[in-house]
User: What shape does this take?
Amino acid sequence: MDSIRTVGVIGAGVMGTGLAQSLAQSGHEVVLVDRTEDILGEAVDAVRQNLRLARMLGGPAPTEDRELVLKRISCTTTYEGIEAADFVIENVTEDWAVKRPVYEVLDARCAPRTVFAVNTSVIPITRVGAATTRPDRVLGMHFMNPVPMKPVVEVIRGHHTSQATVDTANRLLGQMGKRSVVVADSPGFVSNRVLMLTVNEAVFLLHEGVATPAQVDEIFRECFGHPMGPLATADLIGLDTILQSVQGLYEAFGDSKYRPCPLLTRMVDAGHLGRKSGKGFFDYASTLA
Ligand code: NAI
Assistant: This one.
């Protein structure tokens, strides 16, 4: 594939919003898909706000008029314009029952040459590839959050992923000013197999009354030099995504070390999802618009 001009971004939540911004800032036309106009409107507002605050937030500041960047993002609930996509990055809810029908639509509507990248926390890429008629053109691209600020992406080669597909993904990342670490397919890949277990274990420490959230995170920040502790990281990712990921690892490996902590399940049931809901292990009410 020669040039990657138009990129479909499916799902306009935490990750889709960051991706739409990064792609539009690097000159790509973006077709942003979600279920409702309201969600899409909120995503575009978030991109506008993030472009305005980019310098303060530590991400790459726009080098051109902000409205020009925003104009490259077209929003749709009906996949209108997806046929033009050279590359699609799917970021819908971390649930295979939700993701699978999205691939049926994409496979039917996109050109056979179009590459599909799965942005998932733990779902095996080989399973996604097998649900399409182009498994050689499906790969994992595990972007980190917030997307505009993270220079490295974990790229996952599924069982059938071709080298040409990996090369195309690397080219797109190069255009976005990012680079990859390419790994083989395994539930949770490298990052989340380690991170989700660490977060879940940190929640067990709270559940057992061993330490407070502030104490757990202080130990990781001050003793190990991590920029953020595991519980603030969980709040940033979203506790619903964390729970789905831990459950996904538990089902994939059948190993009790991945059983979700009951406190994590209770917090999700209570609607305490972290930054996106204003409350998780820490409070964010004052940072919500
Ligand atoms: P989110 O919950 O913020 O956003 C998911 C979006 O998908 C929502 O806007 C929802 O309306 C939309 N959606 C659901 N069903 C849809 C459908 N049928 N068609 C179109 N849109 C649909 O989730 P988030 O955090 O953005 O995660 C998305 C994916 O990225 C997940 O698979 C997650 O595991 C993965 N991921 C998340 C990271 C994080 O830090 N939050 C990091 C890396 C990957």
User: Anything to note?
Assistant: The chain has two domains: 6-184, 192-282.
